[in-house]
């Protein structure tokens, strides 16, 4: 940096020299780039050649806006530009403070402020390889961690969709982060500050679905003692998130379609329509097209809800994020258990990558909660994973090249002499000492198990797999043989 009151040069901003705690995503026409912002200084943004962040889009003025950075604070100022500066959809006059996650529009150009996660500062070698620059989207009380390039692109798309009023359908497996994505759509839209109301359609009883969504009048049905507004009404001005929309009963689907088309709702038992101003974001883990084919989901509603759709990849397809999220969730869980943070061994991180995470991020979060509650040591190792996960780990990519933490444990003590059965007397044969076959088999079995345990660093499930023994039998025999 050249001086407190001097502008950063474009190159320095892009190179991230003395980069501070903030980064800026710049979506300028068809191009987008991530810019490390300095910790202190002034950054000029516009089409002018002297701009630090130079824009191409014609809707931006030559000298459009300035960012002021100082001691963890970021502010933006409009330089009397032609198309003005908007923050989260609101026009700003003069200098306006920014928070991570804020979307700044300069004409058609969109800027998103991110805080650079501190994990980048950690030595990657200390905890195995991983993405160097995860970013945190701080949306109110929600923090969304993004480290995978595909997810980063997805959140860029979400930010662009947020500026529109299109209904959005979020597709993805359970626990993949669909609600987080829906919340980001709300947060970055003009509706931020208004309610974000979520309903899991799978949890409402069929007869109550319509009343839940559209409300009811007094006496509309048995038990309707008082009039009650529905979810769509309570979200007035904001966003309704319909999770598992595929589970919505057909009658409620018809009514929802009408509400979306007319922006009016009819409470159950009422004849008076009420105007509503809401945006609907729906999500499902189902293949809705198939549901349409089988008649379980209305085709017209599918097209209406899916005007824009985003697909959230499952966690197993975001390998860069597993370690980052694991560390984050573990830190949170340790804090919740009032214990100091635990370290994750490279072998543990490697093992996390060999699991498919069918429950996605939620499962990872729960697993780290389990680890924080159960591990007595200071470093978390693969064997600390729940049995269920250990049993489902894929074999390591390169056998025989286990990381250091998987290195062979000290060889176990020799097996205790097996008690000889009275029914199996040894048959003396000159030149060779024979033991009963059952005993020889036991010895062989034990040797093989010891060997397998050594190769897999003590991971029983892998060891059992290696020698083709069912895990239960392996565990039982481990006890019998005192392994
Ligand atoms: N990128 C992320 N960063 C931090 N936390 C995350 C992230 N993705 C998901 N989570 C957390 O994982 C849990 C599950 O996420 P979420 O509820 O958004 O998933 P979902 O796909 O909506 O699940 P479901 O299909 O069961 O409704 C939540 O606690 C959420 O905060």
Automatic annotation (TrEMBL):
- Key words, A-Z: ATP-binding, DNA-binding, Nucleotide-binding, Transcription, Transcription regulation
**Which Pfam families does the protein's record reference?**
AAA_lid_14 (PF25601), FHA (PF00498), HTH_8 (PF02954), Sigma54_activat (PF00158)
Highest taxon of the lineage = Bacteria
PROSITE patterns for this protein: FHA_DOMAIN (PS50006), SIGMA54_INTERACT_2 (PS00676), SIGMA54_INTERACT_3 (PS00688), SIGMA54_INTERACT_4 (PS50045)
Disordered: where is this region?
399-433
Domain Sigma-54 factor interaction, by residue range, is 144-373
Q: What InterPro entries does its record include? A: AAA+_ATPase, AAA_lid_NorR, FHA_dom, Homeodomain-like_sf, HTH_Fis, P-loop_NTPase, Sigma_54_int, Sigma_54_int_dom_ATP-bd_2
List compositional bias (Pro residues) regions by residue number: 408-429
Positions of the FHA domain: 43-92
Provide the protein name. Sigma 54-interacting transcriptional regulator
This chain's source organism reads Stigmatella ashevillensis
